[in-house]
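Example 5.3 — ribonuclease H
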Amino acid sequence: MTKYYSVYRGKSGIPKILTNWEECKKEVIGCKGAIYKSFKTEEEAIEFLSLSSKGKSEISSTNVVDEEKSLHLDMNGLVIYVDGSFSLEKGNYSYGLVAIRNGEEIYRDCGAGEDSDAIALRNVAGEVLGSLKAVEYAISNGYEDVKIVYDYQGVECWALGTWKRNKELTEAYHKSMQENMKKINIKFIKVKGHSGDKYNDIADKLAKKALEIIS
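Solution (predicted structure tokens):
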């Protein structure tokens, strides 16, 4: 039976999911403050990374995540914050995004997921959908550059191909973003979720709003 090793903090500094203990050991053994956990399913491993990224995971006191340094974003040009959400009650995921140009908010959007196969990935499906919608907005409005601001590492790593893509959703996301990168310059910027960042909080609320209005 395949086991999934979810490594939030390892030697490489890049959160990743591994399926081999030998590979996992190379990442975590000898790494001070390593954060990792094994799971029976890939969905659980992905959710662990998602919750760790947002600062919600239950991690032992010996493996506490250091507070990420506050990031002073360059708000020149087009900057789009994205976030995702999931409702167990409604069995669906959603995205929210807010676009800022030269420091002024210019656009908001949110919506619920339509891919039934992606529901198993919960809020992660919303995170990548939000990223796709953000780039779609930038391209359709004639921008040459866009900064995508996210709080879940997969938004960047799946787009760039630095994370393995074992699901149809993540592979499709990667291919779409690779095509988008031929049309527009995309810079990814990570912020800590639920840390008081104004626009990250707005994107989060928009994603939750999208779930509230569906029947």
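Remark. Strands lie at 4-9, 16-18, 35-39, 78-87, 92-101, 104-112, 145-150, 185-190.
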